[in-house]
Write a structure and sequence with these properties.
The protein has about 190 residues and is of the alpha+beta class. About 30% of the residues lie in helices and about 25% in strands. The termini are far apart.
């Protein structure tokens, strides 16, 4: 059976809101009631101060900033989710404000379902250990990797994240490595 490799990325709740100066992809309502969105191959919207302030105002809870113990629990759950689903976890990096996962899956499943599985099962474990809260943003990025070269590049991208709380890479020959935080992980997002 053919397989696909995905680089999945999502942010922790409240860390990168629509309107952010770093850029964002979101539907923006206009005065006439229409909605503007970013089309593929177009420049991101960025720095819409009123939108960011509004989104902060309507947040359901506090902004989530992960700790190293929370990252360790999430990583353990990513492994469990992948094993249960018959997926191969290739790499994961968890920072205080976002997550990257590289995963090989059989067939061609809907990538949103992959993203949902990792996020929902990690949410259950985190809620059980640290109390209920909003852990993740509603969606995330799903990028298919179509060649072994692009898979290796995605794994290297995950390996070299700035200020990770934890990084896990499935090494050649099945060896596993976990690298804890090199700093506080509290640097502001770029």
């Amino acid at each position: 059976m053919d397989s696909r490799v995905w680089l999945l990325t999502w942010t922790c709740y409240g860390n990168w809101l629509p309107g952010d100066a770093r850029g964002f992809v979101s539907a923006i309502p206009t005065i006439d009631g229409r909605s503007l969105t970013n089309d593929p191959e177009t420049e991101y919207d960025r720095d819409v101060d009123w939108l960011q302030k509004y989104c902060r105002l309507i947040q359901k809870g506090e902004t989530t900033r992960l700790t190293e113990p929370q990252a360790q629990i999430a990583l353990a759950q990513f492994h469990e989710t992948a094993a249960y689903r018959g997926w191969e976890l290739l790499a994961a990096a968890i920072m205080f404000n976002h997550v990257h996962v590289v995963v090989r899956v059989p067939g061609d499943p809907d990538p949103e379902k992959l993203l949902h599985s990792f996020k929902s099962y990690a949410t259950r474990k985190l809620n059980a250990s640290f109390g209920h809260r909003e852990w993740w943003t509603a969606s995330g990025s799903t990028r298919v990797k179509k060649s072994e070269r692009s898979v290796r590049a995605a794994i290297e991208y995950v390996r070299h994240q700035m200020n990770p709380l934890v990084v896990w890479i499935r090494e050649e020959g099945g060896l596993q490595a976990s690298r804890p935080c090199q700093g506080s992980g509290e640097a502001e997002p770029r």
